[in-house]
Amino acid sequence: MTSYHVTEDPIKKVAIFGGTHGNELTGVFLVKHWLENDTEIQRTGLEVKPFITNPRAVKKCTRYIDCDLNRVFDPENLGKKVSKDLPYEVRRAQEINHLFGPKDNEDSYDIIFDLHNTTSNMGCTLILEDSRNDLLIQMFHYIKNSLAPLPCYVYLIEHPSLKYATTRSIAKYPVGKEFPPCAIEVYKIMEKVDYPRNENGDIAALIHPNLQDQDWKPLHPGDPVFLTLEGKSIPLGGDSTVYPVFVNEAAYYEKKEAFAKTTKLILNARSIRSSLH
């Protein structure tokens, strides 16, 4: 007999965010389109709400105004007393948490799709934060199959020191209908790699041409990673093959991240039957 995990509550409310980073325009364009005409995203029995997350940054076409909105949905920032001295994105995070969360509230949204762009060559990527959540794995498996034969990668950021407090973290978790057991390939973050720097803290080497645009491709020990201005190659150290992501991502220069090392894993999920009203 097949066993199923049954969700306690039906999926009723879904939000689609665009403009969490104001210069990532795909989500902005889509959300504005759906705000004018939402027939594409409406489904019977569901409330689907498109939402511009950071309107001031969108207006200026910049990543953020005071601080990164996609990093401030932690209890400390969400619990700060409202004042005009708070950074704009912290105040905005509190507003968004009130509108769509908090996740333990009965009226909070069940799932939030947060749409982003990168300047790195990552293609279609889904970000997973919990390798033990059957519902999330099933949903990602469904999305990957729906997009096939186009590739869709899963980036697992389940790491105690490398996770961050995102907009999507205020929602409950997703999906509806019945799904058989499944498995998905994911790329789990190992560590973030900074650019080589000089004694003043300035970047002293660039991404090597052999690594540029090679997101998700195997990178072996000894392969060139950086290239100094003098033409010297700096190889990958260690003794294991890794898979680089966010290679030369422009938005991460300020975060001192040239790329992130990942390792490839397979995650399995049980059969699920969840109700959808």
UniProtKB/TrEMBL annotation:
Specify whether Zinc is a keyword of the entry. Answer: yes
Compartments where located: Cytoplasm; Nucleus
Q: Where is the AstE/AspA barrel-sandwich hybrid domain?
A: 183-263
Segments forming domain Succinylglutamate desuccinylase/Aspartoacylase catalytic:
11-182
> What is this protein's function per UniProt?
Catalyzes the deacetylation of N-acetylaspartic acid (NAA) to produce acetate and L-aspartate. NAA occurs in high concentration in brain and its hydrolysis NAA plays a significant part in the maintenance of intact white matter. In other tissues it acts as a scavenger of NAA from body fluids.
Assigned EC number: 3.5.1.15
Q: Which GO terms describe its cellular component?
A: cytosol; nucleus
Task: List the Gene3D superfamilies.
Answer: 2.20.25.160, Zn peptidases
Binding positions (Zn(2+)): 21, 24, 116
Cofactor(s) essential for the protein: Zn(2+)
Keyword annotations for this protein, in alphabetical order, are: Cytoplasm, Hydrolase, Metal-binding, Nucleus, Zinc
Protein family per UniProt:
Belongs to the AspA/AstE family. Aspartoacylase subfamily.
Q: Name one GO molecular function term.
A: aspartoacylase activity
Bound how, and how many: what does the cofactor note say?
Answer: Binds 1 zinc ion per subunit.
Instruction: Indicate what this protein is called per its UniProt record.
Output: Aspartoacylase
Main localisation: cytoplasm
What Pfam families does the annotation carry?
AstE_AspA_cat (PF24827), AstE_AspA_hybrid (PF04952)
